[in-house]
Design a protein that fits this description.
With 324 residues, the chain is mainly α. The protein is built from 14 helices and two strands, in the order αααββααααααααααα. It has one domain. It has a two-stranded antiparallel sheet. Helix 9 packs parallel to helix 12. It starts with 15 loop residues before the first helix and ends in a 7-residue tail after the last helix.
């Protein structure tokens, strides 16, 4: 695993030019025909219309509830949120799309991290209303909430929340299917160099949470994306982006390990072993340098990740004692 500690010696593979080539490669591999045709034929509305026709999804029966990694809450009131030192109130539906608040702040708002934060059980009613409000205020395919960064993260958080709190009603589950279908349809076109693991993880979680042929296809695609994104060359590039990226990868890997415990045997021994082999060296690395992003920066997108110590405790609860 020496490639994990050599992130400072990057070759420039992920320069602006190579990131464009990387997106093109992802597009060729994962884009579906209607994704490309819809954009060029000007039929976006027609292309998205079928997303609203969703049957009641079938859920896979979990073996256990989801155990959250410790993280500070971001919802400080029934409609108040705190990100990057800035507190704002979502007084009406316009706030979901209010660009003066900044791209990073809005992405965090749409990510729903508070559903899985410390003390979430005491904010359950807030969360129920927030999920309902989001569904009403965010038309499929339009706005910050449907961009890959916040979309991928929200899918995972909604699944975790339902696995622990049974928080999603039938409307929420149907909307979750809409979100996953949109992510899958736009996967090749929207994939970015920095966040392929998030999209893969979201498809994997949805494919485990739901049952049936469509869910199996999501799971298969998600695993394929993760296998590619966790290859040495991609890992070196991600680690070169700073400790925030390392912390995000650690949580992704630990979540995959727990997903196998919630749905035993669904991922297979090879996938589980790969995640364990990758996460232990990452947890052992020193340092937790965090750079606070400017709220007006459109790229890259930053999210409030857990502390390293919280991730180590999370790993211990999952039985990875070597992480202590």
């Amino acid at each position: 695993m020496s490639y994990l500690t050599d992130s400072s010696k990057l070759s420039g593979f992920w320069s602006a030019r190579s990131q464009g080539l990387h997106r093109f490669w992802w597009g060729l591999r994962y884009a579906q025909p209607m994704t490309l045709l819809g954009a060029h034929l000007g039929r976006k509305d027609e292309y998205l219309a079928w997303f609203n026709t969703v049957e009641t999804p079938v859920l896979r029966h979990p073996a256990s509830h989801w155990a959250f990694c410790q993280r500070p809450p971001s919802m400080v009131g029934a409609q108040a949120f705190h990100f990057f030192g800035v507190e704002r109130v979502l007084s009406d539906n316009r706030g979901w799309h209010w660009r003066p608040w900044g791209e990073n702040w809005l992405h965090n708002l749409h990510a729903f991290d508070d559903l899985v934060a410390d003390g979430a059980e005491g904010r359950f009613e807030w969360h129920e209303k927030l999920v309902t409000n989001w569904i009403v205020a965010n038309t499929p395919g339009k706005g910050v909430g449907w961009r890959p960064h916040s979309l991928s993260r929200r899918i995972v958080n909604w699944v975790k929340w339902d696995l622990d709190k049974r928080g999603l009603n039938e409307v929420g589950r149907r909307n979750l299917v809409v979100q996953v279908r949109f992510l899958r349809q736009r996967l090749g076109a929207s994939m970015t160099a920095a966040y392929p693991t998030k999209a893969g993880k979201a498809l994997l979680f949805a494919g485990a949470f739901f049952d049936g042929a469509e869910a199996a296809a999501w799971r298969k695609t998600g695993l394929s994306v993760l296998r590619t994104a966790l290859k040495p060359s991609y890992m070196r590039a991600r680690l070169g982006g700073g400790d925030a990226y390392r912390i995000a990868i650690i949580e992704d890997l630990l979540d995959v390990i727990q997903l196998d415990k919630v749905y035993p045997g669904l991922l297979g021994r090879d996938e589980l072993a790969r995640s364990q082999d990758l996460v232990l060296p990452l947890l052992a690395m020193d340092g937790e340098r965090r750079a606070a992003p400017g709220l007006d920066e459109a790229e890259p997108v930053f999210f409030a990740e857990p502390r390293v110590q919280a991730l180590r405790q999370y790993a211990q609860r999952l039985g990875l004692s070597a992480a202590a």
